[in-house]
Fold each of these.
Amino acid sequence: MALLDVPAAVNDGVVIKEPITSPPPIGPGAFDSVPTTFIHDSKTNGTASSDESTDGATLATSANGLLDDHSETTKKTGHTRHVVPLINIPGYSVQRKLRVITIGAGFSGLMFAHKIRYEHPEMQNIVTNTIFEARSDVGGTWLVNTYPGVQCDVPSHIYAFPFDPNPDWDRFYSSGAEIHEYMVKTVKKWDLDRDVQLNTKVISVFWQQDLGQWKVIVECNGVQRDEYAEIVISAQGFLNAWNWPDIPGLGKFRGHKVHSANWDHSYDYSKKRIAIIGNGSSGIQILPKLAQLEDTDVLSIQRGPSWIVARMDPGKLLGKSDLGSNPEYTEEDKKLFRENPEALHQYRKKLIDSVNKAFKMFVKGSPENIDNQEFAAQQMAEKLNYDPELCAKLIPTWELGCRRVTPGSGYLESFLLPNVHLKQASIKEITEASIVTVDGEVYPVDVVVCATGFDVSHRPQYPVIGRDGVSLAAKWADEPESYLSVACPDFPNYFIFTGPNAVVGHGSLIEGLSWTADYMIKWLKKIANEDIRSVEPKQSAVDDFVTYGDEIHKTLTWTGQCRSWYKKNRVDGRVTATFPGSALLYKRMISDIRGEDWNIEYNSPNRFRFMGNGFTEYELDESNDLSWYVSK
């Protein structure tokens, strides 16, 4: 008998009708004699099933012998044994190509599209990817947010696709328009819009347990259709759904009202009395721009202050003298970065290194937090010209980092202007022509700007219905809980970018998206190569992650005494937005697939059926080195 010969009938639970000789007859018909059936052995009554052929009858006889041989072991262990059909393909071969539907064509969805085409080209044989984008262009939040002064509060050179750094950023912090222009240009350069369907809105997402697929209903040009996919990836981000604030009387206001996320560029805001409600990032950026318009009178209505501080010194990073908080890059800078990619690489590394080192600032009571808070307070006081009343109102007393820190170029200085006013109070109501605060003060206005942010509940804006009819919106109604921000129990094959407790408060968001995409790709490879039907995180794993996160967050400034979207716009309560640790800890955590935390359902009753005919594809090519692992 040759080295790979095995006796006919049964070998170790797998039925093989003929000996396998070496080399094996790989090709059509090689395994035709293997019956297409499996035998189920239960604790109480082993049964055999077969087709109606003679071979099937022979198999049943042999299999009954197997069940008799192992009946005692089976009773002791309680295990179910199967005799499965072999498949004439090498182990780890892709048995079916996965259909992936990605929802959203912002940074997340486009990053994933690039990964599977260029960084992991083997994925082209594993998946087909379709990106549904509800809007008329790519860009996500940078397509939607076009209000005056919109800019990113992350340095430009680390707020870029890692695969295509941009040497030509105009400033240290880029405007929203420049970021969107860069995204569109990059998409065209890499042909990433190949799989994007614009103006296609997702209406609902339903898990089909009998098919092991998601049914995704989409609408384009008023026509709905059904799409099916084994995998759904939510790449919508967490700042995509804006709503008018719930303020009594807002609907009856007769002046001009506008939301920061839906800016009306056709309206002339000059020579108007303008009230800006809110002082998050958008309100902080809008105020200086409106204050500069001709004959405007601007009122900032806010519940409390925000930390306004430049977290980095651009001049120091560029090896130059003081350049201010948001300097322009010179033509010499751009030329250097264009002609010397390594110089750009080292500069980007310096920026990210600085960001990663800053995590200690978010530890309550740490020297880094105390020192930075003192520095920030001094910097803010200086910009307010040490005006005692303004300093008392606009410099926070709660921990630096409790809310998102923003550079806020020109914001504080605007309050020194005669046409800019501050009111720190809640709003009682809005009348046809004025705003009334809870202390009874009345402010006549022509324009109401709602810089009140987004729905940060993480609940999807359309039905997402998982296993056994579970609604994701209902599951996350009170507290959104996830597995490492990327998945949720009861929602098989459903992956999420920037889900609950993602890397959004520290580190480079874009790098975090890249790491998350790599993690998803590991799962897609495993699902395809091992003939897996579905995967979802165990509820116990999510419970443990949430419990750990709640405890570690108690040591971090994100649980400080401020109202923050990190806590669903609460003063007290769980931190639901930020990862419980540093960006580098997140990277380490998702560098491993951690399959022990997941429930895995296979297409075959035997999880090892994907091992195929017992060979790897590599060794079947006789030109390959089959002893590559011998090192000495």
Amino acid sequence: MDKASVNQNDETKKTEEMQPYLSFQRAENGIILIFKHL
């Protein structure tokens, strides 16, 4: 039981750590699309 919840917390933490990178990547893709349209 405890081990499972620890694993769950670890997965959540990893996702939270990746969040800024993912949003940055999305913004970068948006910028690239804008430049392609210019």
